[in-house]
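Problem 3 from the worked examples.
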Amino acid sequence: MLDFLVSILLLVGSFFIVVGAFGLVRLPDFFMRLHGPTKSTTLGVGSFLLAAVVHAVDDGFTLRELLIALFLFITAPVSAFLLGQVGLRRHVDSRAPLPEDFPGLRHEPPDLPSRLRQTPLPGD
């Protein structure tokens, strides 16, 4: 039964890694390509590590796989955030639609209470 669960986790992980690699290659711009390695590939490697933990149940508990997963799930979002900040500061072009691209859609700001309308910003 455990071998079946390990096989399913490995197949799910492989699927996510292939989808992440496909997204990295096929998505059109820098900001869209960030999603491939940071979202789906992280889930794929996490599934691989979960399969390793399930497989190690017979031999005894190992902390190594859990520490690897913790490191992965902490560093992947941080590195994606830093890459996104670099792209913004270098003014990398994006193909994502902007609100100006949809003139028929208007988002009105919510009606604020009077005490919040004229609140000056710090340093003003």
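Problem 4, a separate protein:
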Amino acid sequence: MFWDFFRRKRVTGKLSKAQGEKLPKPQSLPEAVGRELVVGLDKDPDWVWSLKCVMRRIENEKSRFDIRIFDEARAAQKRVRINDYTSLDDYPELIHFDGWYDKKSRQTHIEEKGKGEPLPKAA
């Protein structure tokens, strides 16, 4: 009816196509992942800690997650809204690093992606 016109519709997070579950929103880098980027891959610490990540649980693993790392400012500049892990499927150029992270053992395996723009190195 007419009064339904003025009601605001609630926007909810979409379910992942792959797993059928709600995925977490972008968040700050876990400490072990940030350390791997700074120490292991020799990236600029100021730049690394400004990045955001999205994660997705790996099937049959309780503490292991697939992780994608991106620059939130660059995504906003391109007017792309990142809601969860699957949001970056359509924009692979925004992914700087990709890999997995084990929360329990704090092990990481991160690979550099997106060879288009040079990434800042540590001084």
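Solution to problem 4. The first helix runs from residue 31 to 40. The radius of gyration is 17 Å.
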